[in-house]
Amino acid sequence: MNVLRTIETFLPYICGPVNQAFQISRRLEALGVHSPVLTTYCDVDPGLPARETIEGVTVTRLPIQLQLMRYCVTFGMGKQAGDFDILHSHNYRNFQTDYGFFLPAEKINPSY
C-alpha cells in the first residue's frame, strides 16, 4: 500500500502540521506501508536536496514556480505523485492540497 502525503513545507522547517505529517509517515513506514512526502521549498533552504530520505521517509521537494504569500505553486506535481492508494493532504488553502483534489483517478492504484 502507498499513502502519498502532500504538504506545502516540510523538514527541517518545524511546525505542528509538519511534525504531524512526518510522524504519521515515519510510523507507517515502520509498519511496512510506503508513505512518501511530496512538498516544496516553501520556508526551507533552497539548497536542500530535491529528494532525500529522513528517518525512513522519502521526501521529494519541488521548485516553486509562483508564490502568493504562502500559496506555493509547484507545476509538475502530478508527474511526481506516482501511483498511490491513498492521498493524505495536510493543511488547507495550499496548492498541494488543491491540486491533489484534481489528480486524475488513473493515478490511484487500481488494485483496490
Count of discrete structural domains: 1
Indicate the CATH architecture. 3-Layer(aba) Sandwich
Rg, alpha carbons: 13 Å
Proportion in helices: 25-40%
The CATH first-level class comes to: Alpha Beta
Number of strands: 7
Q: And the CATH topology?
A: Rossmann fold
Overall shape = globular
Q: Low-confidence parts, pLDDT < 50 over ≥5 residues?
A: none
Q: Tell me about the biggest sheet?
A: 5 strands, mixed
Oligomer: single chain
Span between termini: 9 Å
Placed side by side, the strands forming the largest sheet appear as 3-4-2-1-7
> Count the helices. How many?
3
Query: Could you state the order of secondary-structure elements as H and E?
Result: EHEEEEEHEH
How much beta, percentage-wise? 25-35%
Structural class: alpha/beta
- Average pLDDT over all residues: 88
